[in-house]
Amino acid sequence: MQGGSSGIVYGGLKYQASKQQQQRLLEPSRTTCLNLFLLSLLLQARCIADVRADAGSTTFLAGTLSLKEENEVHLIRLSPAESELVCDGLFYHPNEIWDLKSCPFDHRVFSTVYTSGEGYGASVWKIPEVNGQSNSPQLEQLFELSGHTGKTRRVVWWPLGKHDKLISIDDRNIFLWNIDTSNKSAKVISQGSADMLPNLRGGAWDPHNHNSIAAISDSSLQLWDLRSMEKSTAIEHAHIRDVDYNPKKQNIIATAEDEFGIRLWDLRMLKHPLKDLPGHSHWTWAVRHNPEYDELLLSAGTDSTVNLWLAKVSSDDSESDSPSGSPNRQEEPLLNSYTDYEDSIYDCLGISQALLAEKMNLARLSILNRCCIFEKCSGKGLELYDEVELD
Amino acid sequence: MATAGGAAPPAMDEKARRTRDLLASFYNTDPSAAAGAAAPASLARPSPTAAPASPLDSINSASFDPDIYMNVLVEQSNLEGLLQRHVKMAAEIKNLDTDLQMLVYENYNKFISATDTIKRMKTNIVGMEANMDQLLAKITSVQSKSDTVNTSLFDKRENIEKLHRTRNLLRKVQFIYDLPTRLNKCIKTEAYADAVRFFTGAKPIFEAYGDTSFQDCKKASEEAMDLVIQHLQAKLYSDSEPIEARAEAVVLLKQLNFPVDNLKSNLLEKLEDCLLNFQNEPTQASIGDISKTFRAYLIIFPDSERRLIELAQALFSNRYETVRENLKKRIPSTDLLAMLRSLWEDATAIDEVIPEAALPAFSLETTRDIIRQHIATAFLHLQSEISEALVRTHSTSNEELEESQLQTAMEASKIKVSQGCIDLLQEFHHLIDGNIELLVKLRDLIIDWVQEGFQDFFQKLDGHFHVLSGKSKKKSQESTMDSLQIDKVPTVLVLMLAQLCVYIEQTTVPKVTEELASSFFGGGARSYEYGPPFVPGEICRLYRSSGEKFLHHYINMKTQKISKLLNKRFTTPVWIKHKEPREVNMFVDLLLLEINGVVSEVKQILPGIVRRHRHSDSTGSTTSSRSNPMREDMLNRPNTHRARSQFLENHLAKLFEQKMEIFTKVEYTQESVISTVLKLCLKSLQEFVRLQTFNRSGFQQIQLDMEFLKTSLKEFVDDEAAISFLLKEVNNAAHERCLDPIPLEPPILDKLINAKLAKIKEENPNMR
């Protein structure tokens, strides 16, 4: 089952891990795409998750979205030695997956949000021990996050490690669960209901604060305090599709909006955004910070492009910075735009692993300033980019 | 010596120098200093071999050692050299001899003449002594005689002096007794000056002896003097008197210790009133009169200059203030110019009288300020007029969009911008043409201001546009009230702004630049570190980017609206339990209504393209037509095949098909904007479909709606290929998300669509 280099077909799914070396170092542009891994699925996928708990290697989980086919969860590994994508595991999932999140402290645990017919559900799963013989082992369902009345939208883990809480969001409620993966049990601790048809669609958990979560609805971004389960503040009149906390800096948040593209906010001053980025030609569906280099933002849009942005946010000393930089110095925030996709792109993530980066860079013998690798999940495939920025 | 010949000078110089040197060495008390240059050299190198180059130099020094010299010479030179040196030295010795002789001779001559002179002086002095003795004797006799005369005449002289004093006293007393009558006489003849002189002469006596026998006399003369004072005052106050007379009266009054200051302040107050009158009703008095008055006062009260200067300055600053007041409401340049001109003339007139008031400098400065302000207000007015024109259109035509009303509004605002700029230029032209001395001085400055003004104006206008469009953050930061207003920014306005930006960039700015270049050349009175004040390139860039921003904003707003509509449509029903399609859904009507709105707005405001045949706008037109049959085929295929094969085929078809460029660059044309809006809407539609799960009827409903849209949208766009591609995409998305994708039979589809069309016709019989 482990990675062939090209064209291995498993049950109608085709992985194509092709390696195209595009050494265009002489290109004048600042960013040069050095390496491109292409992994195309023949099924639609809407979500991809970075397995952060797995420190040794770079792995991802991707869930497919197919109404008529059997749905799968793919465990994909980027093997550092061969620099290619390898499918480490393929697990059948009973329903089509709308959201998938990996547990940040146990690399074999993940959560999905799915639909089955009319119903919505959310579960936490465990990947069974892989013993080479079994072709498609069954996922072990640890527990189901039942109790939602509306359409379940999103399951959110505390992003930075061990935390025994979990949040699930349906279109009008936020549930805080106490989970115990070893006992396979989950209990609702508290529940918060939004008033007046908010139609929640997702959220993000503040990595700097256990008690704060940003939930997005049709017309606003709401910050909830998990202790009181009440809304504290909100950005009103914004049609937000995605939200992501800055992993390094406190109080900085990025939103993807229909109207204004990508905006960066300081949660202490919600009246006006810190920064505006133009976003995409159509909807900006997802926005993610690079976990290592928080100035790099990755956004995916329904105009079939993935954009890489450089957005420097200095929360306090922005005044002292701006005069020194003359207008000419002001850099174009859009570093690169990846356009050769056929369909809308619904998810993307930036990853960065020092070890991996080092290895690749040594191999390329290039002077490196920053390195980011991102992966995106489009309607019809997964692609992994090694984005190397040359000084 | 200079006549000695052409070849002589160098020789003479040589000789002279040598003589001088010799003399110097002769008279010099410190010969080592003269030879200092040579001596250290030979001392520093005592070895004879080491100093072979300096024997000749050291011959003149004090430390000259003939033995060493000889030794060096003998050692270093050959026989011939020695001989030569011998000859040379002999010649030198001879020369020195003759020089010495000449010197001795000259000095001897001088000595002889000096002794002669002394001898002559001695002989001249001998005869003088006898004469001097004689003179002394004569002078002593004269002195004694004069002493005797003096003593004999002394008594008589004292007598005479006493008599004389008495007579004077009597005359004075007589004068004082005569004084009243004399004064009266003077008053009669109006010789006030004499009267005052008499009175002041008698005054000390009156003061000393006024209480005694002079009492009556004093009273009478004082009465007379009161009369004099009254007369003098009257004279002073009367304007008809000649200035000199009035000035004299003041002087006299001052001599009489009359409090003149009161008079002065009274008079000046009067002048002030007069000036105030002049200010209010300039017709009553001419500036000539005023300047005359100033002159008179200056002569009458020489010490009142300060006050007068103050008055004059106050007058002019007040008048300029009124001009400034006028500026607040917009006045044409010619009027302003007339005002300034008259003021300038007045100022120069007054300046002739009191140059110390520095009125021309003051008025120059003030005029500069005023003109600057004038230019600024002119620009400000233009800006507000433009924005008014823009805002008025949308406020009046907010609901019922009458045909061509927008168009006229658009034209009106265009003209407003263009004509406004040209008018301004013409007005400013007056400012430059007016050949008043004042303005000539300011010409360069004015040109700079105008250019600067235009630069500033265009930038401000751009900012204002942004505020109007509600995209400016600055404005929304100011208050929360504005953010509410921003929500209500009419989309039409944004589109108009976009078009206006293009117009300004392409028409107005070049026009203005041309105009500026032709009539406002020069300038640069101030040094500009940042280049010329008006940079059309920068403005053009600014407007181009703003225009694009507005256009995108417009499209964004429109698609937002439609997106909301679609959102409602797709999230409310339960698609999985959808009933069989009976008719085309309501939302299609709403969608078409919105699009109609966009089309009518866009058609009125943006320029259209005449070439309707240009259908190859999109790159996908051929490819999609090629892929059409395949897809059609696929959709209409009976459901015998397994879904997987359909899916694969679908995918394959997509692979072979050229990528459809949906998101092309937006241009300032009706077609481009409309098709962009449509494309974005359809793309949104597709994404909404992808989020749902459909049953068969739901899928069929979508199919029906799309089919209807296809026929209805045709009339809007020339980029049919892209639209039909996107509609297909929606269909495909629904197909993918459908549990049981069986399409409607074509006849049923046709029937339903025709029913809908018929219904539309029925509702709006007069539509098309």
Automatic annotation (TrEMBL), chain A:
Pfam families for the chain: Beta-prop_EIPR1
- Ranges where the EIPR1-like beta-propeller domain occurs: 42-309
The WD repeats lie at: 277-309
What UniProt keywords apply to this chain's record, in alphabetical order?
Answer: Repeat, WD repeat
- What GO biological process term is on the record, naming one? protein ubiquitination
Query: Where on the tree of life does the source sit, at the highest rank?
Result: Eukaryota
Repeat recorded as keyword: yes
Where is the segment annotated Disordered?
Answer: 315-334
Instruction: Name the PANTHER family for this protein.
Output: EARP AND GARP COMPLEX-INTERACTING PROTEIN 1, WD-REPEAT PROTEIN
**Family per record:** Belongs to the WD repeat EIPR1 family.
What name does this protein carry? Answer: EIPR1-like beta-propeller domain-containing protein
- The organism named in the record is Miscanthus lutarioriparius
Lineage of origin? Eukaryota, Viridiplantae, Streptophyta, Embryophyta, Tracheophyta
Automatic annotation (TrEMBL), chain B:
InterPro entries recorded for this chain? Vps51
Disordered as annotated region, ranges? 613-636
**An example Gene Ontology CC term for this record:** cytosol
Which Pfam families does this chain map to?
VPS51_Exo84_N
Q: Where is the composition biased (Low complexity)?
A: 618-627
Its subcellular locations are: Golgi apparatus, trans-Golgi network
Q: Which GO terms describe its biological process?
A: endocytic recycling; Golgi organization; Golgi vesicle transport; lipid transport; lysosomal transport; protein transport; retrograde transport, endosome to Golgi
Subunit composition and interactions: Component of the Golgi-associated retrograde protein (GARP) complex.
Record's function text:
Acts as component of the GARP complex that is involved in retrograde transport from early and late endosomes to the trans-Golgi network (TGN).
Give the protein's recorded name.
Vacuolar protein sorting-associated protein 51 homolog
